[in-house]
Amino acid sequence: MQSHDLRKSFLDFFKNKNHEIINSAPLVPEHDPTVLFTTAGMHPLVPFFLGEDHPAGKRLANVQRCLRTDDIDEVGDETHCTFFEMLGNWSLGDYWKKESIEWSFEFLTKNLNIPVSHLAVTIFAGDMDAPEDTESKEIWGSLGIPENRIESLGKKDNWWGPAGTTGPCGPDTEIFFWTGNGKPEGLPSQNKKWVEIWNNVFMQYEKTSEGSYLPLKQKSVDTGMGLERMLAVLNQKDNIFETDVFASLFQIIASNSDIKENISSNKNARIIADHMRAASVLAFDGVYPSNKERGYIARRLVRRAVRAGREINFSSPEDFALLIKEVAKLLTPHYKFSEQAVSEAPDIIQTEVKKFLNTISDGLKFLEKRINNEPNLLSGDAFEIAKLTFFMFETYGFPIEVTYEELQKQKPNLDIKSVDVLVRELFKAHQEKSRTVNAGQFKGGLADHSDQSRKLHTATHLLHQAVRTVLGEQAAQKGSNITPERLRFDFVHSKQVTPDELKQIEDLVNDQIKKDLKVEMNIMPKEEAQKSGAIGVFNDQYGEMVKVYSMGDFSKEFCGGPHADSTGQLKSFKIEKEKSASAGIRRIYATIS
Ligand code: ATP
Ligand code: MG
Questions:
Q1: 99 and 151 in one domain?
Q2: Domain boundary among 218, 237, 256
Q3: How far apart are CA 89 and CA 11, in angstroms?
Q4: Residue 523 burial (CB < 10 Å; 0-12/13-18/19+)?
């Protein structure tokens, strides 16, 4: 089966079940500044899950173009792209689990002829917040999925939402297809040969600011199926790259590179094909490579593709333009892009490729000269090598790995690890510098935040860390609220906080205020923030890049800001009251003066 047939039979199927087919939204969310890109079909529909009426009715379906930069390091494996297409159907307060599961099953087994023996499903196992999703389990059973192919898993796997800290959320059921050669065996979490193909989310609860889960009045269904994965499955391929959506792209890469055989299993070729698809569609939606925000992601994708291209001798800018034209040919019949953007994109990206290639070649010449002029450089001080690596980044836009590779070509036993630690330090210092430069820019956004609420916000971060230091790491934030007079802070703790503990917490915060720690802000990819140990409520409402605020070594937390410039501005901190907020959650009221 080809992509065109799959799109059509999916949409026809749901049209027959009285769904309206809606247009794909662009990759750049139209009304949501908190995220960089549309990552799923349900994303543009969030307001309608919250109760707004959708002009097309209560049953919707479409094919949505999606971009997940979070998956960028996965690209090259068998199942992940950055850009992909998602087939989805939705019920906005209309049908519920029975219809949703039965239709998924019908489409897979009847329309696509997938044998039941090759399917397995997962459902929500239940926990303190919500019971096991026995309803879904029973429906699957009634359709003939045997018990040993139904797996119950926790929130991490089978729960969606809420999108922010509060709002609609609920269990999901995921459908897996057996991609192994032999007989299907085990359960999805036990065997990688089970590949997730479709996810049906049932929004039936509302998470409140107190952290409880109440039944929702309008229950909704959101489903998503990856087009590329489904195609691979239907054509008995074990990876998404052997599908028709990629075939002509790989032909172009094969004709113009060193790889002539098995091109679709070559990791570099996969990266080029995926990243150029993503960069092309971004451009068709008006996002061109640049230094800022979304444009920076486009630039990163192009540069990574160019790097991968150099590895297999695919490096003529004209050939990159060929790929973009091919992506346009493949996708313009299915999506409404800006016509102007589609016609401009090949030239613009070709120029970007040319510029980066020139930079790389200038950079390589420079590097060669440096090493020739200083024969002892690579056997000497690691800090000098780190400085050189950083210089290559700042001046020539060399990704650090490229510099490392070049240095290792000259000196294979170079201790890259020690160099890398120092390079990361240099990057940190660099970010702080740009923070000062950018401070002016952020001022605008601060205008509507009073001084006092900024300080209380900063005090909340200190309190969060102090609570964790005194009561333990499990005492994570569950909510917070600020009025001009006071802050309110909710956190996980199973018993009353003793007066002695409260005193310790209060003292700890006041110690940090006395130290007058500078409040530093860095912008970094979400993953890096998590790795660096930054605390805070991690959820989908954050985009790819997050702001991390730190105060000395004491607090590091990510949040949108704004904050006081230094902790000294808070003067002094006082806990006014401690009480229970809900089961397992305590609440502190505090003031500053
Ligand atoms: P995985 O755990 O495999 O990354 P996921 O849980 O992120 O999948 P969902 O968010 O449920 O996937 O997305 C719905 C469907 O979209 C998946 O079932 C899959 O078919 C497809 N999908 C998700 N991520 C990608 C990707 N990076 N490339 C291609 N298809 C994807
Ligand atoms: Mg994923």
A1: yes
A2: 237
A3: 9
A4: middle
Give yes or no: residues 438 and 455 share one domain: no
How many domains is the chain partitioned into structurally?
4
Ligand 1 mean position, distance from CA 294 (Å):
22
- For residues 277-302, one letter each, b for 16 or more C-beta atoms within 10 angstroms of the residue's C-beta and e for the rest, the string is bbbbbbbbbbbbbeeeebebbbbbbb
Q: Which of 320, 355, 390 is the last residue of a domain?
A: 355
- pLDDT at res. 447: 27
Q: Give the distance (Å) from ligand 2 centre to CA of residue 283.
A: 24
Side chain identity at residue 245, one-letter code: V
Ligand 1, pocket-test mutation among 3, 39, 196, most atoms within 8 A of CB: 196
When pLDDT is cut at 50, 70 and 90, the band that residue 278 belongs to is: very high
Q: Which domain holds residue 427?
A: 374-443
User: Is residue 367 assigned to a domain?
Assistant: no
What would the mean pLDDT of 458-467 be, rounded to a whole number?
Answer: 96
For ligand 1, atom 16, the nearest C-alpha belongs to 226
Q: Residues 464-512: pLDDT tens digits?
A: 999 999 999 999 998 888 877 899 999 999 999 999 999 999 999 999 9
Determine the atom of ligand 1 nearest the C-alpha atom of 175: 18
Ligand number with the minimum distance to the CA of 75: 1
Using the mean position of ligand 1's atoms as its centre, give its distance from the Cα of residue 409 in Å.
Answer: 38
Cα distance between residue 213 and residue 131, in whole Å? 11
Nearest ligand (C-alpha, residue 188): 1
Task: Give a yes or no: residue 364 inside a domain.
Answer: no
For a pocket test of ligand 1, which of 80, 159, 195, 201 has the largest count of ligand atoms closer than 8 A to its C-beta? 80
Claim to verify: residue 277 and residue 216 sit in the same structural domain? no
* Ligand with the closest atom to the CA of 122: 1
Q: Which ligand is nearest to the CA of 246?
A: 1
| CATH code of the domain containing 57 | 3.30.930.10
Q: Is 368 contained in some domain?
A: no
pLDDT at 268 over 70: yes
- pTM (2 d.p.): 0.71
Q: Whose CA is closest to atom 25 on ligand 1?
A: 80
**Residue at 590: amino acid letter:** A
Name the closest-CA residue to atom 22, ligand 1: 226
Are residue 231 and residue 247 in the same domain, yes or no? no
Name the CA dihedral angle for 150, 151, 153, 156, rounded to a multiple of 10 degrees: -80
Measured on CA atoms in the order 151, 154, 157, 159, is the torsion positive or negative? Answer: positive
Which tokens sit at 499? Answer: 């007066």
Q: Are residues 175 and 55 in the same domain?
A: yes
Write the residue with the smallest CA distance to atom 23 of ligand 1: 226
